[in-house]
């Protein structure tokens, strides 16, 4: 796909898909990766598995907001227009809702129901993130060493103050050595 290609049908598909997902992105857009994969790769064929995974990997490695992978998916599927409509679709509804709700909650944070809702969303978000991680790591599902390494890294992040850059560097060294 060339960056300036005219592809309004693809743009409408991307916009509609990300608009529908936007309000379900509890924990951020990354929690919706399994559904994005199903819709963009399996159902519509707008992206290949390689493009899909590359978009996420590149955006997560680059500085900036976590949601940039959505723009890359739009870029791969529909060029510059695809990137723009994907970002508008994912950002406008969820941002509007988050702003409205945060203003409402800030004046009612002492309410028991508000506190209970916020506490209940923690396990939902963690579950969605775990599902995303599982979906993005097919090699870990097939290689016990990779799964064990993921568990060790998660424990290190959780229980120590080791800088993440050192863990990323260690993963790069292990991957380059062919150990994972």
What does this entry show, briefly?
The protein is mainly α. The protein has 2 domains: about 10-135, no CATH class; about 140-180. About 75% of the residues lie in helices and about 0% in strands.
Class computed from helices, strands and strand pairing: mainly alpha
Rg (CA only): 18 Å
The number of distinct β-strands equals 0
Beta fraction of the residues?
under 5%
Q: Tell me the helix content.
A: over 70%
Order of helices and strands: HHHHHHHH
Counted up, domains total 2
Largest sheet geometry: none
Morphology: flat
Mean pLDDT: 84
Structure notes:
With 180 residues, the chain is mainly α. The protein has two domains: 8-136, no CATH class; 138-180. Helix content is 76%, strand content 0%. Helix 1 packs antiparallel against helix 2 and helix 3 packs across helix 4. The radius of gyration is 18 Å and the shape is flat. The model has no long low-confidence stretch (mean pLDDT 84).
Brief descriptors of the model:
180 residues; mainly alpha; 2 domains
Topology:
Blueprint: H1 8-22, H2 33-43, H3 49-61, H4 68-106, H5 112-136, H6 138-142, H7 144-159, H8 164-176
């Amino acid at each position: 796909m060339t960056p300036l290609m005219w592809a309004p049908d693809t743009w409408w598909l991307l916009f509609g898909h990300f608009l529908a997902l936007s309000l379900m992105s509890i924990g951020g857009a990354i929690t919706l990766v399994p559904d994005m994969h199903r819709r963009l790769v399996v159902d519509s064929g707008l992206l290949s598995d390689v493009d899909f995974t590359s978009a996420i990997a590149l955006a997560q490695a680059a500085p900036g907001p976590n949601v940039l992978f959505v723009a890359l998916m739009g870029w791969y599927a529909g060029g510059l227009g695809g990137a723009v409509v994907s970002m508008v679709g994912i950002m406008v509804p969820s941002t509007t809702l988050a702003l409205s709700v945060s203003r409402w909650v800030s004046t009612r944070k002492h309410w028991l129901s508000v506190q209970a809702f916020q506490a209940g969303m923690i396990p939902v978000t963690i579950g969605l993130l775990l599902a995303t991680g599982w979906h993005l790591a097919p090699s870990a599902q097939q290689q016990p060493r990779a799964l064990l390494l993921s568990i060790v890294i998660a424990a290190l992040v959780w229980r120590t103050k080791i800088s993440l850059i050192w863990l990323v560097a260690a993963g790069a060294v292990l991957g380059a050595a062919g150990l994972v």
